[in-house]
Structure formats: C-alpha cells, structure tokens
Sequence to fold (456 residues):
Amino acid sequence: MIGPCLLDKVNKDIRSRMMKKKIAVIGSGMAGLAAGWLCRKAGTDVTIFEAQSSRGMDFHTQFLDGNDGRSGHVDVPLRVMSPHAWPTVLKLCDILDVKTFEVDTPVACSWLPQGTWFRSIKFQFGSREIPWAPLRYLIRPETYRMLSGFLQIYRAHPKSLDSDLTLEEFRKQYRVDPIFWKGLLYPLLTTICTCDEKTIDQWPAGQILDLLQKIVFGSRLRRLQGGTKALAEKLGTDLTWKSGIRVEELSEKSSGTFLRSQNNEFGPFDYVICAVQANHLNFLPEQYHRERKILDAFPYDSGTLWVHRDERFMPENRKDWSPLHYQVKKDFSQSMFSVWVNPIEPTIATHAPVFQTWNPIFEPEAEKTLSAVPMERAVVTRENQKLLSELDLLHQGPLRKVFFCGSYAASGVPLLESAVRSAIKVVGYLGYDPLNQKIVDDVPSQDSNSETSLAA
Ligand SMILES: Cc1cc2nc3c(=O)[nH]c(=O)nc-3n(C[C@H](O)[C@H](O)[C@H](O)COP(=O)(O)OP(=O)(O)OC[C@H]3O[C@@H](n4cnc5c(N)ncnc54)[C@H](O)[C@@H]3O)c2cc1C
Fold:
C-alpha cells in the first residue's frame, strides 16, 4: 500500500511534470470548460480557443434588463439537472461553490388548438416523487391513461433491456398506450434530447428509460443559481482565453502541435483537446482520417430554440399554466413543447412571462420574439456504443497528442453530465486526475463507471 507521504511526493512529481505542459482546448462549451479547468488544476498552462466572441457555454444567455449580469436572465437553452442523473456536474458545482436550487416542474398537456386535458403534480411516496393529477383532472379518461403510462415506465427495468432494443421496438413490444407516448412521453423525450420523434424512435430504449425514471420519479430537478453563466465563469477563470478565434487548421510538427486561424498561428502545444461538436472537426488534417471516420459518424439533430412572450404557447386558462407545457394535435401528427421560464428562474419571477419553445409548430409573433437560436444536439442510435469504444481505443494509442471530448463522447444521453464525464476521461488519458488527487496509472477502462471518478 502506498503511504500518504509517498502519494504526496508522487503527486508533486506529476504536478511538476504537468506544470511544464502547454495544453490547447478548442471549444468552451461544458466539455471544453471542464477539461480546461481540470488541466489547469493539474498545473498545466491552458489556452482555450472559442469561435464565439465569448464563452460558448453561456453565449446565448438572454439578459432582460441590460447586460450587467445582475439583471433578470434566461439561460438559453435552459438547463435543468436531476441529482440522480447529473451527479458529476453537481459535484463539480459543490467543489466550485456554485449553488444550485430545486425547482418544481409540473407538466400540462393540451390539444392543439385548445383544451387542456392533463396537469401533473407530484406527491412524495417514501423516497420517491410520483406524478399525479389534481382532482379536477381525475374525471377525464385521458388522465387515467396517462397515469397508467407513467406506471408502465416506473415498472420498466431499463438495465435489463437488450442494449440493442430501440424505443420504437420497446413501445411496440410493451404496448405503450398511444395517448401516453404520443401525447406526453415522446414530447417529453424530444425535449430532453432536443430531437425529432424519428430520432427518439431509434434511441436505445434502456438508456433513455433509465434517464426518464431518474427525472420523473427521482428527487426534484435542480438549476444553477446565477444560471449557466455562474458555473462557466468559475470554470473559465484561470484559463488564457482566445475568444472569437475559430480554429481552422491543426498541424503536428516535431516541436509540438500548432493551431491556425485566419493568418495567425498558435503553439506549439504539447496536447490539444478538441471539445467542439463531433461534426465540427473539419480543422483536422488529412492524416487524421481514422479520427474523422469515427467522429463524423456520431449523429446530430438540429432545430431552433425560440425565446418569446407569445401566450398561445400556454394553456388558455391561466390556472392551467405549468412550467412545462405540451401541445399536441388531436390526430397526434404534430406536437411541441414550451417551457414557462418565470416560475423556475427567480431573477425573472416578477417579469412578464417568458417562454422557450423548441421547433414550434407555428412561429411565435415577431413582436413577441426575444430570440430564435439555431442549435445542434448530439443524439444516440445503437451505433454509438461501438463508436465510443473505437474512440477509446484511439485515445489509448501511444504518443497521442490530440484528444476529443464533448457531450457526445461519453455513454448515456448527451447532456452536461456526459460532457463533464468525457472531459474527466480525457484528462485521465493525460495521466492525472486532479479532483481525486489520484494518479491514473492505467487509462480508464471502457466501463462507463470508470468515467465518473468525480461522482464516486
Ligand atoms: C434546447 C436544448 C436544451 C438542453 N437542455 C439541457 C438540460 O436541461 N440539461 C443538460 O444537461 N443539457 C441540456 N442540453 C444539452 C447540453 O446543453 C449540451 O449537451 C452541452 O451543452 C454540450 O456541451 P459540449 O461542450 O459538448 O458542446 P458545445 O456546447 O456545443 O460546445 C462546443 C463549443 O465549441 C465551439 N467551437 C466549435 N468549432 C470551433 C472551432 N473550430 N474553433 C473554436 N471553437 C469552436 C462552439 O462555438 C461551442 O462553444 C440542452 C441542449 C439544447 C440544444
């Protein structure tokens, strides 16, 4: 057994070895910021390159009364976390002293153009919170079908499902009631995963049901106090920033790795961590064809997130307004989901209502629109696990200088959590785990649990 003194000495040695390293991180979303912060904590010199004019993670935050950071703000997109499914991000918040708070997120469901037919509340059942409906909705048959749909999800055993079983196969095999999956389950999932229903159909069922159980039946969801900005600011403090620099070329030379943007060259760097979307890696040179082949295969979906004040996206009756509102056509041909932000963002609690809608069926009125931001989101098919294994193998190659992380690069639904886990893993490949103050002797195994040492 290694005694604490010896461990201290070895850690100091590693630290002094790391201190000499220069690391470039490309991209300042959650993965890039976490990787940069972890490398900085390990004592390296970190330069972070971001194509946007400021940090990528909170670039789209909307300030409602000026831009001073103290005013009412809306995270775009709005991020929520469940303690069960986001343990690593929440642990990081603890370490950085970024406070989080619980929010209530009841759901209302309406037909389009109108008619609210379900509103959820939650009640405590032992250590679990169970979705339920207020009395006035209990007389409706749809409500019972919804509640029995929830029961079916509650009883599912996601971990025992065949890893190749898609959600489409699951709902057919388990005869999930159409009113539940079309009216609520799919809109909920297309919102959590920000993608269309066809994509959800192809998602591995076990993975998505596991997340759903944690969100729907777990403890209350949490949000970041001060918004995404609060966490991003803390992570980015000690890094050297190159904002507004889109990396266009990466080249490995004998003196190190260089990055080029327009006519400027940066480097040499000992290591480069690419924390951009897997489909944004066109700056990789020709000899990276293996990397490109794997990374290009990670699937993405895209859409537009509208931030607006158009009340047609809430139930007609103000009493039915809920932070989450699903609207679905009676023939189930189209649905959409809106978040009423004010009840879950204290800095705008007294402001006029603000909503976020992903890919609305009809556009919010122009004069009521605050912004419309095109976004891409990593999604998952049954191929992803194979791609992740191939990426792991690549990362373990000898003399590796360039690494890849992002929400797509860890198992599970691509979220802030997977972005952080992928960053921890990459920093582990560099030989250090600064949070556990523990030496990573071997590269982490492919078991997803090994990615989350921070959460342990
Ligand atoms: C509508 C919506 C709602 C969401 N809600 C939640 C939620 O509630 N909870 C949750 O956990 N997650 C949520 N997510 C997902 C989460 O936001 C993403 O998974 C996460 O932000 C991805 O982080 P990332 O660091 O992997 O990538 P990104 O955030 O995409 O960061 C990549 C960065 O790289 C920069 N970049 C790209 N190319 C270059 C280049 N060549 N040079 C320099 N910089 C470059 C980009 O500008 C960007 O800033 C949501 C996503 C969406 C779209």
